[in-house]
Amino acid sequence: xxxxxxxxxxxxxxxxxxxxxxxxxxxxxxxxxxxxxxxxxxxxxxxxxxxxxxxxxxxxxxxxxxxxxxxxxxxxxxxxxxxxxxxxxxxxxxxxxxxxxxxxxxxxxxxxxxxxxxxxxxxxxxxxxxxxxxxxxxxxxxxxxxxxxxxxxxxxxxxxxxxxxxxxxxxxxxxxxxxxxxxxxxxxxxxxxxxxxxxxxxxxxxxxxxxxxxxxxxxxxxxxx
Length: 225
Fold this sequence. Notes:
By secondary structure, the protein is an alpha/beta fold. The chain has 8 helices and 11 strands. Strand 6 (about 160) and strand 7 (about 165) form a beta hairpin.
């Protein structure tokens, strides 16, 4: 049975709230072979494969501060920042009941968390720059796995003049917007004709509803038109 694939980037800004979010996702969708199909989906028989890509958060900030002090080369800073994502993955796994994986070749039914160093080291698909964060890395994972892409962060989405923008086209993403995405992500989305749903991960039910494709307060960044 084919599953609906979703990549959820869980931002480092959610470090306090993220365990609750991950556990709520596991409760809703299962983890590994253990999956509970919600009543409304039983007739459709469409399970979900949800891959969590960890942010860097305080762990990546440590690398950034060390880089500012000691001056790392771009390659060293890049791989150290990827390893910081792995530290966040260990934290999330420690605080939850989620299964882990270091591969994106096959997504299991339910929720799993990606330890990204191995696959990124093998593929090395992105520039080595602080402008490339876990946002673009998660988008790349979504592209490789044919998944919808959700970015869970600590804000409701992208704001313009104090108002939440429900939908933004990449071509419109210029002055006046208060953005929470890395500088490389818009171009990546546009090049690969992808969308990114930005949602407040402090409200796990919103993330769950977004997985089901239901409307919630969020911003959809559209790079596919």
